[in-house]
Amino acid sequence: MTNEIIVIGAGAAGMMAAIQAASNGNSVTMLERNDRPGRKIVITGKGRCNVTNATNLLNDLIAAVPVNGRFLYSAFSSFMPQDTMDFFEEQGVPLKIERGNRVFPVSDSSLDIVDALYGAAKKAGVKFRKGRATELVIENGEVTAVKTEDGEKLGCTGVIVATGGKSYPGTGSTGDGYALAAQAGHTVTQLKPSLVPLEAHEGFCSQLQGLSLRNVAIRVEDTQKYRTVYEDFGEMIFTHYGVSGPIILSASSHMRDMQREKYVIHIDLKPALSHEQLDKRVIKDFTENANKDYVNSLGLLLPRKLIPVIVSLSGIKASTKTNQITREQRAGLVDLLKDFKVTVTGFRPLDEAIITSGGVKVSEVEPKTMKSKLVPNLAFAGEVLDVDAYTGGFNLQIAFSTGYAAGNNF
């Protein structure tokens, strides 16, 4: 008798699970509420898709998952980043490795990743069906069918829930999987945003809205514990509510137990220069503009939009001639450029987050198989589980590894 497996959610985890389950000889139906599979994959990495991280050290993978990383030991061991890379290259998608071991398709197109997964699933015999799962039919302790929003009842011998989280609801991630898990008796832990823009206390952020800083260093301080929780270098952007951009999103996942003004971001606007080198650079600019107003002497040093904010925070009057600025005032300016502070007041809403932190409680899931400990023919894969990682390709690797484990065990 052929097993009838239903995979709910045609994202990264769901399609990998479906491919594996079908490759094992099961009859697999992929139930997806969107018209097209992989909607969330399409927008990852600004449309380039950071498909994995090219580390093959298991401890490094687990260290990149601050929430329940040890739970993924078996799943990662069975399907490592090199396996992910081999899979896509076998599907005809050449890959490249960039800074931080981030792996992207050579084409810089996330559509190539979606097409590869979809093509591999179709080749394995997976049947795609449009529909939204609303209920699991559980009889004698096992799932026997899935009910859809349209009133259909799809019989099955096993179900893999891979519906994603609750972030980016426009891609179909509206939290359906949490409701299905709860219906099966599972605990769903508190849902919180992760890899999310940050709101800030300082009013100058709205003045700087749209300003992108490409080569800055940040250090995130926990002011309650007086310690640094994260450091990074790269790109950030100011918004009307605070700050965003790649290094800010990464920083957000290190901010646990968020409280107003608990975290301060220290931005080094000139990380390539030491204090002494920057001071010499400022002296040079001031000397060359000796008779100009202070506000008009910073054009070669700073983006135009940032100048009035720096002038205001430096405490030096805008109209002061540069040849009248004291050594102490200049030192204060250099300190400001090397330590430009933004005080965090909170996360942006969950629907703006890249990843949902929280989900199906992992102590109720078998780590080797991703199967439920409560309902033996039910499994979970991907973001619906209470695991989330830092940026850099780790979250998609979680999707592929858990999807592989779930699909391989039917």
Short synopsis of the structure:
This protein is α+β, with helices and mostly antiparallel strands and 410 residues long. 30% of the residues lie in helices and 24% in strands.
CATH arch. level architecture of the largest domain: 3-Layer(bba) Sandwich
Radius of gyration: 25 Å
Envelope shape: elongated
How far is the first residue's CA from the last residue's CA? 13 Å
Low-confidence stretches: none
Largest sheet: 6 strands, antiparallel, barrel
Secondary structure category: alpha+beta
Strand content range: 15-25%
Number of strands: 19
Q: What count of domains describes the coordinates?
A: 2
So, the CATH homologous superfamily of the largest domain? FAD/NAD(P)-binding domain
CATH level 1 name of the largest domain = Alpha Beta
User: Given the structure, what is the number of helices?
Assistant: 13
Instruction: Provide the CATH topology of the largest domain.
Output: FAD/NAD(P)-binding domain
* Quaternary structure annotation: single chain
Percent of residues in helical segments?
25-40%
Overall residue-averaged pLDDT value: 92
Written account of the structure:
With 410 residues, this protein is α+β, with helices and mostly antiparallel strands. The protein has two domains: 4-192 and 357-408, 3-Layer(bba) Sandwich (FAD/NAD(P)-binding domain); 197-347, no CATH class. It has 13 helices and 19 strands. It has helices at residues 12-23, 39-43, 58-63, 73-78, 81-90, 110-124, 176-183, 204-207, 246-252, 275-288, 307-314, 327-338, 394-408, and strands at residues 4-8, 27-32, 52-53, 95-98, 102-105, 127-130, 133-139, 142-148, 153-155, 158-161, 192-194, 198-200, 212-222, 227-238, 242-244, 263-268, 340-347, 355-357, 378-380. It has a six-stranded antiparallel barrel with strand order 12-15-14-13-16-17. Strands 6-2-1-10-19 form a five-stranded parallel β-sheet, sandwiched between helices. Strands 3-5-4 form a three-stranded antiparallel β-sheet. β14 and β15 form a beta hairpin. α1 packs parallel to α13 and α10 (275-288) packs across α12. The radius of gyration is 25 Å and the shape is elongated. The model has no long low-confidence stretch (mean pLDDT 92).
